[in-house]
Amino acid sequence: MSNAVQAAASSLPLFHHSIEPLNVDLHAGLRLNRGAGFGFSAGMATVPIGLGEFEAAAHSYPILFTDTNPPVPVVLLGFRPGWNLFVNELGGWLPGAYVPALVRAFPFAIIEDAATGTRQFGFEADAACISPTTGLPLFEGGQPTGVVKEAVAFCEACQAEMNASRAFAAALDRVRLLEPQTATIEPRGGGKVSIDGFRVVDRNRLAGVHDEVMLAWRWRNWLLPLYAHLLSMANWTPFTELAINQLAARQ
What are the extents of the domains in the chain? Predict the structure, then answer.
């Protein structure tokens, strides 16, 4: 069985089924309850990450590049679509594992209208973490609270980091450093599961990159994410063990 790693290609922000601009007249009585957990991400086998997340993410997951044009840096969370190994049935994230920024940003997101060039701050009103009774208020006295202000700043930072991450991946692709790979998981009950549709940096090709290119990457602060990606390959073994154990638990 083969399961390709894919970047999110929806017109909506990741995890969102609907999104609307946050408006005090419509949403004055709503609250944010972060205790609702991460169940909304339980079906995501990969999540894109920003450039500044590579170092932290490298401690928990394989960091891969999608086999798309342009490539998208992602963390691998599951071996097949619809199953995030790091989220349990109660919506809790695996203790000690880094939680990607896009996961933490939900239910908020920046809405962009390419036709008009306008941007708005929106959210998923039906999200489990949005409630009229539980959590911190989004508005007080007709004005956004610190919850909203922090969410706006975080979403703006996420967007900037995602753009930087894609620029980094495109640069690696231009010098042909990204090599297609396939990984295999062998469950205890028999059979094999292949994970494909992703690329990684080829270490031999990296050794041949011109010094002036490496220097340019250094000035752009791209060396840390580059080496974080390479170091993250050590996570294949614990990832495989996690997958095998969870498969066995479901049999």
Answer: 2-250
